[in-house]
Amino acid sequence: MRLLSLIFIAFLLSGCIRYSETWRFNENGSGTVRIICEPSPEWLKHSGATNWFQSVLLFIPPYKSLSQEFARVGVKFKHCKFATKKGKPYVDMLIAFNSLTSISRTSLFSDRLLQWRKKPFKVTLLHQLSTKRPLGKAEMASLGDNLLADAAFDVKMYFPGRVISVEGAKKKGNCAFINANLAKLAMGKAITISATARTGYSLWFKIMLATMILIVAGLIILILRKLIIKHFENNNANPPIHTQPL
Questions:
Q1: Could you report the per-residue pLDDT of 102-120, keeping only the tens digit for each?
Q2: Does 42 map to a domain?
Q3: What is the pTM of this model?
Q4: Whether residue 216 sits in one domain with residue 193
Q5: Facing residues of 195 across strands?
Q6: Which of 139, 157, 158 is nearest to 148 (CA)?
């Protein structure tokens, strides 16, 4: 069980009640993903924070082995913190990637379908979460009904522009997000998210637009200059006739 390909199953087995991912994408598809996991109140009541940290270590690969694995596919493990805030323990991971193809090759995200498509002024993300190794009923029952009722899985995806359409999730500004039941995911229920964001005009388009504006402005100035010069030339060629009264 030490090398589970789906990370949120590992956290669920270790007593996690809330698992969240925050993705931040650049226009070229690179970016970061931050993973935060917290235990259930029931676990803390009976076992305490120290035992929870030890339990988590049983289900996720060591930091060193993950770093080496990530490096081989061009992914960087920036940090992995086991910390406590207001008496509540949590795990905080930050991962940087050059492309979704590279991060999907890691053991933590091998069950994901991740695709990034860049179009003129738009980007589209396809993110499918599924479980190749779903938990059985006996395993789910061993976790306890209280844990399963509150086990949440949150995903936030921030795009380099405003999200204009989304399927399988909600949107607000430049973010697409979902809130699902972690237990249902662990049992094999798949979630598919498709989101499109507008990235604005490309740099080349902006340069071309600025160039065209300058050209048009220059032509207008030249035309006005010629009209003014012609006006003065006509006035000089035909000076007004002044007559004196008799």
A1: 999 988 888 889 999 999 8
A2: yes
A3: 0.71
A4: no
A5: 125, 166
A6: 139
